[in-house]
Amino acid sequence: MKIRPTFWKLVFLFVMAAGVCATYVRFAKGLGPSTNLSDQFPWGIWVGFDVLCGVMLAAGGFTLTAAVHILNIKRLRPIIRPTILTAFLGYVLVSVALLFDLGKPYNIWHPLIMRNPHSVMFEVAYCVMLYTTVLSLEFSPIVLEHFKLEKPLKIVRAALIPLVIGGVILSTLHQSSLGTLYLIMPEKLHPFWYTPLLPVFFFLSAIAVGLAMTIFESSMSSKHFGQQLELPIIQELGRVLLVVLSVYGILRFEDLLHRDVLKLVLRPSYETYLLWLELVLALVIPLILLLQKKVRTSAGGLYVTAVLVVLGFITNRLNVSITGLESSAGVRYVPKWTELAITAAIIATGFALFGMAAKYLPIFPAAARLEASGTEAEVRAEVLSHAGD
Amino acid sequence: MSKALLYDATLCIDCKQCEAACAETNQLPYDDAVAQEDRQSEHKFTVVLAKGEKYMRRLCMNCGEPACASVCPVAALRKTPAGPVIYEASRCMGCRYCMVACPFGVPKYEWNKLAPRVKKCTMCSDRVEAGEPTACAAICPTGATKFGERDDLIAEAQQRLRENPGRYVNHIYGLNEVGGTSVLLLSSVPFEEFGYRTDLTRDPLPLFTYRVLSRIPDFVPLGGVVLGGVWWITHRREEVAAAAGGAHEKDDGPKEVVFYPRNDGRTQ
Question: What are phi and psi of B61, to 5 degrees?
């Protein structure tokens, strides 16, 4: 993080200070004074962004572990550590966000003993709990290696494949179930977004965002952590992203067509504008970009595409959870400063934790090699020799 | 047998005694100011709405298959066999999914408390269990709100519609809405005028999520076997290739599934 350290540190301090103030308001005064939520609109950005988008942005973890360990695509190995780190931090932060949103956060453990298997929320709670455990185990070798704890390392490595398979199943379940959450409100959610296919769309878009986030992260890491950009790898991710986006796009179009909603798509309305914002960001521009070889093979092109895909699907999640419910609720929801401040502080915490982990743990290939070989000089030499490749 | 309420708006005289009785039973404040409030809230579980000489009550419909109870992850909301949909505050963690899911927008929240609870009419569950009618039905001076067996009340509502076809909109609200509710309504003006949606599905809402959720027990073993199979094939293929090629790098074989390779794979 050598680039403009003072500016970003100031931003970080400001965001964290605002977050602390907002946290005080939330826990000293309650949900009413700290949010713009109401009986008409009980879920805001803490659910729509922090939880729905948070889980989606962490989807790279299961996508990449499946690709590397199940499909045995070895080429992708160098980026698996930062991806798992992102996923792990993502899920931890989602859990933290939940503590803010729940009316009685100290009861968060209740689903463990008070079960309602008919509830999608119950299923999501279990999957997220179990998957966070899986992620911490998948992440543990990095820490164990660092402290040279060979025995536990052996155990985790032996359990790796079952862990990965379990993680992929749990992710498939809860990524799609976040869409299933909204299936219970056919009368409330706007027809642009209410479809029996919601779970399928949530799952597919999680994969797309998982890939996009991995590209984004590799690019950022190459800028800020002095990592060499793994261009062939992100080119490969770009190609897969193109396929996933195409499948998603076709399904989305057919869904609108068959539910007879396509005629509403050009009728001007609040929902129409936000639907188009989502579709243009997530599908139209990225597909146009990725269909060109020049973009698909360039680091800059892939970076821009990835950012658009991420923003597009964040819009999608916010549309499902907020835009699509406003008309039936009869209110417009705009988050209060406290809601925004806490969300921003959680994001900032994520960046800071990632930066710290990248600094102190063997996350990136060069650092991993440093741990393995033991001498920094060797690694320097190796990195230099690769620079000429 | 399941109990229910039948509210016949044509018999209502807007005396608001049901509101007062409801507040008393649920230990809520009730005065002239509260009486003026025309929507349900965390301190007012039932409301008599007025449009000129036409009246309509709003209260929790106590659905036969309630969305709120189905979505509650900790089963804080429950439908009792007697009819009421009850709430157990000590289980609740405050996720508010019930409020989002309810097709009638009934559950309200104590937004300004530090240990907030969901608040709604629970059809006087304690009284009903003790064999008494709900407070609102017991006090109603005109019989506009009537308590009884759901089947009997449906028969009675149908009879009223048959005998006075001109007097009513030909619809028993709650008979089929979201699979049927324990509150049944009759009215002389369209229900929409008082904010009741008449476009609700006749399917119980929990079906919409259960259709998906019920597949999970099948999906888990299936997914496990498929993923395990793919893993086996991709790694076996490599093993075979290594055996055939002989000179292939052995250290990439399946015996050494290294989680994170120390070699970064960039070597060509």
Answer: -75, -10
Q: How confident is the model at residue A379 (pLDDT cuts 50, 70, 90)?
A: very low
Neighbours of A272 (CB within 10 A): 15
A296 occurs within a structural domain: yes
A197 contacts: CB under 8 Å, gap ≥ 6: A251, A255
Is B227 an 8 Å CB contact of chain A? yes
Q: Please tell me which of the candidates A75, A81, A118 has its beta carbon nearest to residue B206.
A: A118
| A66 reaches B (C-beta below 8 A) | yes
Residue A381 lies in a domain: no
- Tell me which residue of A97, A177, A93, A120 sits closest to A350, measured CA to CA: A93
- The pTM of the full predicted model, rounded to 2 decimals, is 0.89
The reply to whether B219 touches chain A by the CB within 8 Å rule is yes
For residue B140, give both structure tokens: 């109603």
Per-residue pLDDT at A150: 87
Tokens, residue A56: 């989606």
Q: Which domain holds residue A246?
A: 5-35+45-357
Q: Does the structure show a pLDDT above 70 at A308?
A: yes
Please check whether residue B87 is in contact with residue B122, taking contact to mean a CB–CB distance below 8 angstroms. Answer: yes
Name the band, by pLDDT with cuts 50, 70 and 90, for residue A366: low
Q: What is the pLDDT of residues A311-356, one digit of tens each?
A: 999 999 999 999 999 999 999 999 999 999 999 999 999 999 998 8
Candidates B79, B102, B108, B111, partner chain A, best to mutate (most A CBs within 10 A): B111
Whether A371 is covered by a domain: the verdict is no
- For residue A74, the distance in angstroms to the closest alpha carbon of chain B comes to 7
* Class of B3-213 in CATH: alpha beta
**Separation between Cα atoms, residue B59 and residue B47, nearest integer Å:** 7
- Lookup result for tokens 């409801």: B22
Whether A374 and chain B come into contact, CB under 8 Å, resolves to no
What ipTM goes with this model?
0.88
> Where do the structural domains in chain B lie, given as residue ranges?
3-213, 216-255
How far apart CA B155 and CA A154 sit, in angstroms, is 71
Shortest alpha-carbon distance between residue B35 and chain A (Å): 19
Scanning A148-177 for CB atoms below 8 A from B yields 156-157, 160-161, 165-166, 168-169, 172-173, 176-177
Residue A66 belongs to a domain? yes
How far does CA B222 lie from the centroid of its chain? Answer: 32
**A151 CA to chain B: closest CA distance, Å?**
15
Mean pLDDT (chain B) is 89
Tokens of A75: 């080429």
Closest CA to B228 of A304, A162, A9: A162
- For chain A, the domain total comes to 1
